[in-house]
């Protein structure tokens, strides 16, 4: 065997191995943070709001549908519009991903309408210090009921935010889960600021559906969510003051 075979072959193998590792890393990153997110990250986002509120769905997308063709998109919009008024009365700058019955797919140029809508909401979340996406749920099991709060897995501040909101929400609605649920696959939770996703109840459950159809209940939910947001802001400000650095 020539001496160059001893050195060249291992180098070729090493190059192949490094390439394979690079591909695996790229794939793992892609599935955690899709290409659309990286594209949006290239565009600098100014912080314009204290909080961004997202009423889920809208327009062609009704979200969950309750008995009698009752749509999630209408209930969550009503609640979020009430929240915006409450929070503005406390001096906060509030952004909304939508204020009418429409989606936000027009904000992103590539992908399916559903994908553009998600990325559009993600883009808007990055314009605020914190965010909340408000939804209702549905399942084939009509016995399933109650509220759920999701936060980004392994994010301490997001978990505190979710826990505080859950405590306030429990005062006006039964809980489906006693603690906030960590998730790593929900796109909006990957935004830069702390973002949580709140499921207010199950439209497939007759009791929850009746509650959501009650304007007084929706008003109580709006107030509870705002109380959670204000409590979290107080907590976050206190943590920043003690540590001397932003959280």
Key structural traits:
8 strands; two-stranded antiparallel sheet; 2 domains; alpha/beta; 247 residues; six-stranded mixed β-sheet; Aminopeptidase; 14% strand; disordered N terminus; 7 helices
Could you say how many structural domains there are in total? 2
Radius of gyration: 22 Å
Strand order, sheet with most strands:
4-1-5-8-6-7
Number of helices in the DSSP assignment: 7
Number of strands: 8
Largest sheet composition: 6 strands, mixed
CATH architecture of the largest domain: 3-Layer(aba) Sandwich
Distance between the termini: 61 Å
The first-level CATH class name of the largest domain:
Alpha Beta
Would you identify the regions where 5 or more consecutive residues have pLDDT less than 50? 1-9, 21-33
User: What is the CATH homology-level superfamily of the largest domain?
Assistant: Zn-dependent exopeptidases
CATH topology of the largest domain: Aminopeptidase
The share of residues in extended strands comes to: 5-15%
Shape: globular
Compile the SSE list and pairings.
Blueprint: H1 3-32, H2 35-41, E1 51-55, E2 65-66, E3 70-71, H3 72-89, E4 94-96, H4 113-125, E5 131-137, E6 148-152, H5 156-169, E7 181-183, E8 195-202, H6 206-212, H7 215-243
Parallel strand pairs: 1-4, 1-5, 5-8, 6-7
Antiparallel strand pairs: 2-3, 6-8
Structure description:
It is globular, with a radius of gyration of 22 Å. It is of the alpha/beta class. The protein has two domains: 30 residues; 198 residues, Zn-dependent exopeptidases (Aminopeptidase), CATH 3.40.630.40. The N terminus is likely disordered. 48% of the residues lie in helices and 14% in strands. Strand 6, helix 5 and strand 7 form a beta-alpha-beta unit.
